[in-house]
Amino acid sequence: MSGGHGPGWPLLLAAGLPTVPWATVLTTVGLAAGLSLLLPVLPAPADGLLPPLAVVVVACGCAAAADDATAAVTEAVPVTVRRRLLARVLLVVPLSALGAVGVALGSAWAGATPGAGLAGLWAGTGALGLASGAAVRRVADLPAVAAAAVLAGGGLVVVTTVPPEVLEVAAWDSVSERTALALVVAVAVLSRVTRDPATRRT
What we know:
Layout: H1 9-16, H2 22-37, H3 50-60, H4 81-109, H5 118-139, H6 144-161, H7 164-167, H8 175-193
Helix pairs in contact: 1-4, 2-3, 2-4, 3-4, 3-5, 4-5, 5-6, 5-8
């Protein structure tokens, strides 16, 4: 029973299952696995570069949860935008997390030592990717994962080009702080872009 608040979670999950672009999610998992498999044939410096890159790739797949092909025809259904999104997140994120675990295991098998920050990198990148994808979907009919990939690419450029002292600022000088900051930003963006049309100010 739904208790007067619209369909229950089992029904929402079942309804969300066919709306998720699974091919996109599986593609990110496959690309990440492929990057991990390259480790044995690449020079040693790649050991510190490929695992984080693979984790970023698989984390971008979380944004696929923001792609809802049924949104235009379900606005009259008594299910909020946030509940529909959360249902798809519950379907997509576990698969992305398994992909990240696979990257860590594949890297270890190849002889690399996965960094302790890979979990935080996955969580932060996945959350920001989901938020950016949801924001883009609100204004344009573009793949959410594309928005996440652009954001992740921009982040990689910033990290590799800004002076080291900027990255050592106290506000984000540790993995936990960077992850927490990313989650706060993502939640703030999602709370804004997932408001139902009827509740927005004009």
